[in-house]
Design goal:
About 40% of the residues lie in helices and about 20% in strands. It is of the alpha+beta class and about 450 residues long. α1 packs antiparallel against α6, α1 crosses α14 and α8 packs antiparallel against α10. β15 and β16 form a beta hairpin. It contains 18 helices and 16 strands. The strands form 3 sheets. An 8-stranded mixed beta sheet has the order 1-5-6-11-10-9-7-8. The protein is elongated and about 95 Å long. The chain folds into 3 domains: about 220 residues, Bira Bifunctional Protein, Domain 2 (BirA Bifunctional Protein, domain 2, 2-Layer Sandwich); about 130 residues, Bira Bifunctional Protein, Domain 2 (BirA Bifunctional Protein, domain 2); about 90 residues, 3-Layer(aba) Sandwich (Rossmann fold). It binds one RNA strand of 77 nucleotides through α3, β6, β10, β11 and α14.
Length: about 450
RNA sequence: GUGCUAGUAGCUCAGUUGGUUAGAGCAUCGGAUUGUGGUUCCGAGGGUCGUGGGUUCGAUUCCCAUCUUGCACCCCA
């Protein structure tokens, strides 16, 4: 009798038809744009070997991986069952060798290495699938969510970076979301770390200055000090973080600062190239160079991109960058890729918040046959087939229920037309067509009904 | 993983300083109307008061634990 209420795991969601319709709208729009730019779809399994996943996302990422318990009697295979060897991180490799994917980029790198002989480079692919993270859920953060990735792999050209930004601009313009696209380059960040004499602390530095908008300059400096940066290095960093002004002024200053760092200068050059193109292209969305943009994922090496919706509490809705050696870890060195990922669920949240979904009716059915009984069913079925052949979405109520019930069904499902077929209609061949919006009724033969519905829906 | 908030019908929420049968609106179902929905009127079903334990004569109410939700940190789409 244990009649427990059914539930789903923390941070996961069911989607009702009304939500699915809106989600499909987002996915369809994104897919259409991806294809417009010449990207082709792939899919990869929900689970990967843990060895493919671990160590790719940083320490924090490893913690957030969902691990899958081995099948069978794995426990008997463990030799030492004393407490010492049962500590989580020691026992994990013994009982789990698979995990749910954390993003689509790392599985893609694995995919490219594995299928290198079946694809030709540069390889442009898109991939729309769910990913899983064992994070604490909160606003705009789920444990299962969909990413829409576009990547080009096997090309060093900065044209790819430019193209991805155009895709971002295209997608958000179509969806009606006003965004700001932030652009930076990891090489500039490396350069800065080099110049201030703390090249080993790049990650700490970037993570800290990434928070400057949120916690302010003082707290950032505090955090840097705690991470072990010398006071001198922090001092040197200040003018860089505080670089103000328009691009024309920023770049010469930055070049002066980074003049002793080869990698830093390279980063500046790359970024200037990209931005110069963007200037010519007249985007609908705002964009800017943001030296405080860092992004947490370890594998980025060049350009980094992040998109935020304007005036929204939901965090970034799209992000990405260039990774020079992701395939290297899987045994294929010297292949560079760039890619971005759209967070479909956050885009959904932003669009809900700002009421940006087009208000279409939920049902796709244009017409419902009311069911009066056995003889009438028999009479209606061929007519229904005819209507469907005319490419009109239509259905018949499956039970011989009361009129009220059937009409309510049509009403709730937003079906614009109802056809009533009883003894009278069967005798004359003229069916009663009811317009659910106006309440008007006509007696028409089936061909006229088809004509009418087609003319109205066009 | 850390801190804070909350959990009462399918949904949104009342309520109880610990005391018989826990309420409303919406939704659902039925009827007024056996071939006419969206508006109206009448009625019905639905709750182990998140779960487990403790204190008490008695707990939905107090205490503890746990799960879930929301928020902040961390991190991120």
């Amino acid at each position: 009798m244990a009649n427990k209420k059914p539930s789903i795991p923390k941070g996961t969601r069911d989607f009702l038809p009304a939500e699915m319709q809106k989600r499909s709208y987002i996915f369809d729009t994104i897919k259409e744009v991806f294809q417009r730019y010449g990207y082709l779809p792939i899919e990869t399994p929900a689970m990967e070997n843990l060895s493919s996943l671990l160590g790719k996302y940083g320490e924090e990422g490893d913690k957030l991986l969902f691990k899958i318990l081995n099948s069978g009697d794995f426990f008997s295979k463990i030799k030492n069952k004393d407490e010492e060897s049962l500590i989580t991180n020691k026992i994990t490799p013994l009982i789990s060798e698979k995990g749910l994917r954390y993003d689509l980029t790392v599985p893609f790198a694995r995919f490219v290495v594995q299928h290198r002989n079946d694809i030709s480079f540069p390889f442009k692919r898109y991939q729309i699938q769910p990913v899983w993270r064992a994070d604490r859920p909160q606003k705009g953060r789920y444990r299962e969510f969909f990413q829409c990735d576009v990547d080009v792999i096997g090309s060093n050209s900065l044209l790819n970076e430019v193209e991805l930004i155009l895709i971002i601009d295209d997608v958000f313009t179509r969806l009606g979301i006003e965004t700001i696209i932030c652009i930076n380059n990891r090489k500039i960040l490396y350069g800065i770390a080099e110049v201030i004499g703390e090249p080993d602390k790049v990650i700490d530095i970037t993570i800290a200055i990434d928070k400057i908008d949120k916690i302010g300059l003082e707290k950032v400096n505090e955090e840097l000090f705690q991470k072990g940066l010398s006071a001198e290095a922090i001092e040197k960093l200040q003018p860089i973080i505080n670089l103000k002004g328009i691009l024309k002024e920023k770049f010469p200053k930055l070049m002066e600062i980074l003049k002793d760092s080869e990698i830093g200068l390279q980063g500046i050059e790359e970024t200037m190239m990209v931005l110069r193109h963007l200037k010519d292209l007249d985007l609908d969305n705002k964009w800017r160079l943001d030296l405080t943009l860092a992004r947490g994922l370890n594998y980025y090496t060049g350009a980094i991109i992040e998109v935020k919706a304007e005036n929204s509490s939901i965090g970034s809705i799209c992000g990405g960058g260039r990774y020079d050696d992701l395939t290297g870890i899987f045994g294929l060195p010297d292949v560079s890729g760039v890619g971005i990922s759209f967070g479909a669920d956050r885009i959904y949240d932003v669009m809900t918040e700002k009421n940006l979904f087009p208000n279409k009716s939920i049902s796709t059915s244009k017409l419902l046959f009311v069911n009066f009984g056995k003889d009438e069913e028999k009479y209606c079925l061929p007519l229904l087939a005819k209507i469907r052949k005319a490419e009109i979405n239509a259905e018949i109520y499956p039970d011989h229920a009361k009129m009220k019930k059937q009409m309510t069904y049509a009403n709730n499902k937003n079906i614009p037309f109802v056809v009533l077929v009883g003894a009278d209609e069967m005798r004359t061949g003229k069916l009663t067509l009811k317009n659910m919006q106006t309440g008007e009724q006509d007696k028409l033969p089936i061909d006229k009904i088809i004509e009418k519905i087609i003319s109205i829906s066009n």
